[in-house]
Specification:
Chain lengths: 115, 114
């Protein structure tokens, strides 16, 4: 079946611009996560949705970052006034739920480059 | 706070030889541990998980992992390495709390030589 998809696969922008990154989770998965992976590092948690609501946004680095999931399926990560330090691969993951035995399935990621 | 450590940046092994990729963890409460693999320009793929039960966990592509509570380790193993196993491997632990978010190690690059 279809996995998690993310668009675009690559995004190059200029410092100060606004970007949106999209995630389509696996159908039926209620939990959705965003992670950020910097070069040479493991993924770091940004935000988690259960259904439509952001249940945990403790990983968002500052108020330039925002994410929505208005219908409980597709999610968009929004970054305002981008900075060079925002350059990273942004990964989306989904799972059936948040029970401790539910593994997360990851998308291919969006590579964001801020010039 | 939950954490995992992967002490090796890179592991080199000859094709056909057994491989081990190391991971140690630090948790408060029960450990829920995962291994993921990342191929170039691709997302993370789930390999296996330890939740409870047998200390030897079997996963995808012939991989297995051994949970050792006394040594707080969860090493990834495979009896016979393939060149196609060459990739970046991440150990992760479930964070305590209701969200099930994962805390990842820094990754270990596995290079299998023909």
């Amino acid at each position: 079946g279809a996995g998690v998809s993310q668009t675009p696969s690559n995004k190059v922008t200029e410092k100060g611009k606004y970007v949106e990154l999209r995630c389509d989770p696996i159908s039926g998965h209620t939990a959705l996560y965003w992670y950020r992976q910097s070069l040479g590092q493991g993924p770091e948690f940004l935000i988690y949705f259960q259904g439509t609501g952001a249940a945990d946004d403790s990983g968002l680095p500052n108020d330039r970052f925002f994410a929505v999931r208005p219908e409980g399926s597709v999610s968009t990560l929004k970054i305002q006034r981008t900075e060079r330090g925002d350059s990273a691969v942004y990964l989306c993951a989904s799972s059936k739920g948040t029970n401790f035995y539910n593994e997360q399935f990851f998308g291919p990621g969006t590579r964001l480059t801020v010039l | 706070a939950q954490s995992v450590a992967q002490p090796e940046d890179q592991v080199n092994v000859a094709e056909g030889n057994p491989l081990t990729v190391k991971c140690t963890y630090s948790v408060s409460g029960n450990p829920y541990l995962f291994w993921y693999v990342q191929y170039p320009n691709r997302g993370l793929q789930f390999l296996l998980k330890y939740i409870t039960g047998d200390n030897l966990v079997k996963g995808s592509y012939g991989f297995e992992a051994e949970f050792n509570k006394s040594q707080t380790s969860f090493h990834l193993k495979k009896p016979s390495a393939l060149v196609s196993d060459s990739a970046l491997y991440f150990c992760a632990v479930r964070d305590g709390g209701a969200t099930n978010k994962l805390i990842f190690g820094t990754g270990t690059l596995l290079a299998v030589q023909p």
